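Re: your question from the hallway

Yes, I did run it. Sequences:
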Amino acid sequence: MENIENIKIWLNNNIKGDRYIWMIITAFGIISILVVYSATGTLAYKRMSGNVEYYLMKHSLLVILGILAMWLAHKIDYRYFAGLSKLALWISVPLLIYTWQFGTTLNEASRWITIPVINQAFQPSDLAKLALIASLAHMLSKKQQKIQEFKQAFIPMLGWCGAICGLIALSDFSTALLLFVTCLLLMFIGRVPIKYLLMLCMTGLLAGTIALAAGQRLNTAVNRVKHFVSSFTNPDEVPFQAKQSYIAIASGGVIGKGPGQSDQRNFLPHPYSDFIFAIILEEYGLMGGLVVLFLYLMLLYRGMRTATYSDKAFGGLLAAGLSFAIVLQALVNMGVAVGLGPITGLPLPFLSMGGTSLLFMGVAIGIVISVSKEKVET
Amino acid sequence: MNIKNSILIRVRLAFIVVFLFGLAIILRIVDIQFFEGSNWMKIASEIGLKYRTVKATRGNIYSDNGSLIATSLPFYRLAFDPSIPTQELFKKNIDSLAIQLSHFFKDKQVKDYKRIIQNARISGRKYLILNNRKINYQEKKQLQQWPIFREGRMAGGVIFEKAETRLRPFALSDRTIGFINENNKGAGLEYSFNQYLAGKDGQALFQKMAGGNWKPVYDESTIRPEDGYDIASTININIQDVTESALNRALIQHDADYGCAVVMETATGEIKAISNLSKVGTEKYRERYNYAVGDQGLTEPGSTFKLVTMMALMQENPELILDDTIATGNGSYRVYDRIIRDTKPTGYGNISIKDAFAKSSNIAMAKLVKKQFGLNPQNYIDYIHKMGISKPLDFQIMGEGTPYIKSPKDASWSGISLLWMSYGYELKLTPLQTLAFYNAIANNGVYLQPIIVKKIIKADKEVVHFKPQVVNPKICSEQTLQNARQLLEAVVENGTASNIKESHYKIAGKTGTAQKLINGKYSRKYYTSFVGYFPAEKPKYSCIVVIDNPKGYKQYGSDVAAPVFKEIADKIYASDIAMHTNYPVKYTMAKGIFPVIQAGHQFDLELICKKLGISQKSNSHEEWVRAQRNDNYVAWQSNKHQSDLMPNVNGMTLRDALFILENQGLHVIYKGTGRVKSQSIPVGNKFKKGSTILLKLG
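Structure:
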């Protein structure tokens, strides 16, 4: 009894903010370790000569690191993130350019740079994404009184969104597009007039095309969209990955094949990342899919609640912006897996294997919790 | 409406949109599972996906100077996915592509290629093998420039499927280089060093296509194959070539069953050549079994073993004097119910021990051994073991035969065993083991394990370096060693192998002619051999030649195997300048003023003489000649020069000398006028290209 009391006191002292968000993230952590363990089964077998535990250990460690990052972020007063995010934004510009030119190439796109000394692959677009959304929330909150003004309020936001999305688009078009859409959404929430947003859409379209042409990804993007469009009329045209994903979903049924029973993990490319939702549906069925979807919507709901109860506009916009960014990416990933959109290379937040993604998603949700703290404490 | 409320309403609006999207995802899952489900399951069962092995590139085998002996070359097979090119690209280029295909493969008409591709495209095929011929990398590069193909795999649909072929640029020493089959069984180096050569295969996802072909799903492998290491052998291609052809010729001449020849570098233990030829038809011999190394090569060596006996005798009795006389009698010597015979029907009578060895007297060996070891045969056997010849050499090629040396405790030991062993019967050795022992004599008593692989290399980096083990650092006393060498030299000097006596350099060795044991009885079939080393004073190589069951009237080691040894030795000696003793060659010029031109171009000189009416004579036609005065005419003698060796330009005109020397890559400076009086680099010396030579004219 005393032990439980002690734990309660410890939790009260150390875990602050929205308890539901904490629980959702813990649930994601557990699901992630389970599914990634299964999805890397074949990969681990092949690369590490059967040492399946290698990826289990590595991924578990990263999940814990992500939660640690979240815990650290939630300890910081969210107002500090206004300045921090601006700093991060400035840092990410040269990083993105460097990555585009000299980064590690995987699947024909250079998205990674290797951090010296610790020799860990790092994806600067994850940092830029977080920084841009936080900065945008800050800019929006500052300009709320004169939000209608084009030059004073809109131009700086436009500049940053254009620059960051454009730089990311050079090597990773789908991430850039998603970020751009998230920014639009955040500006809409932040009361930027609709006519400006429409204008922004037009410029975005133009900039996107230029970035694609200048970058490495034009062919891939065009091909994927083409395949996606033609797949509606001709089932033979369904791309290989999508076909394998559908087979996974169809064979999973309502309750799934059971943990670790996936067959399609052998044939799906990146079953532990881009197509992890297909593996979830195969192993845990429609039910598993519903649970995961529910958790994301729940997370968005809690983020929204945080925004509602936040006293300051910055807090509200920050919580809303980050929650939407996470959940939008999650839904786009799931949409791709079930064939609602063309193939992209976006990971599923909190669930996919991948160091940088887990870390920055952790920080992002930590910030949301930090905002939620404000209300709980008073 | 205040700002906060406005924001909150917008947030909720956005939430609803996201929620609806989530709903769409669920509906789509239900759609896939319940409405399209059976369709996808059917596709799943038909799609035929499988992880297949991607072969690693096998390592190369190199000769001692880095020439390729065996290598794996990539080849490609041309396939095509006709559904990939756009209509525009296809229509515009199909004709020129068909022309290219038809011209390249020359097996179908242009219109046939066009029809095949068009039909495949119309019927929606995604995989079409255009031609089964293997194309090499250069051709692949060429094909990649063709219309449609130049758009690559993703836009043009061209597929190059990689396959590999093992190639041997030199058709040498097949059995030693060896092979490996799909079940990882094989022979020779390929088999023995497979763990290094093979590399690690990778895996990639393949999809089964119509016609039982597999098409890779992605361009890259899931697990990349790791290429095999290269191995650097000690084989010298020139020596190997010489050895193989000499052996082959002798086998044909003697209509023998099989033969083998091995050349070993004395100081390093490196096998420079190894050839094994078995009869495969009349006058046809091929490498089929490694008799030099393997089990089947284990035989009673015969007289070549007498060296071991002599050394045991000398070690046991240092007082033994080789010039002492031994009575070999009338050529037959009765021991119990058996008779030991010598080759000479009337016997050698009383001869010195040295002569007895040189003439290969069995009776002498038997008598000497009986006297020395008769009471304690084990002592003799101990010498054999102590010297190290009874153990296998742990040779780098797998499957080495184990020497068979019996002991007095064995059930098969009989009263005659000791005497029979003394001249090489009732025991078994492989040719390589015999060679290694003789090499120890050549190598001042250091008994080296022969090696055939020097190192294992991974992209210029040495992974493993092999050094020959020392079987025995000193097989006998210095005195015994010197005596043994004397004995071996005597064999060639005035013994059984005097037919291969050579004046330029000395050969030392021993002949062997063993009767073959067939069904427990010694037959009239022989196993002939010659083993030795050269040059005898300063041995550089040792070599063994074995010829099994020669036919015709010549059936002795001296007549059959020894000449092959000499042919190999001669050719190695001729091409290895380092072995030559540098004798300063003196060319004396004809005295007096006639002929004025002492040397030059034969055609020119003959022309001049003809015009001037000088009588001349020549025995041969050469490019370059020297003049010699014979009574009243000029005789032209060959002045041929060997490449690498300094030509003789004395007595030539400057023009001719310059022509010859500069063609040899020398830089010429000269002093004076007239004909060449002296040259600064002596005739017949080795020289480096690009060095300077001074000519004095006068």
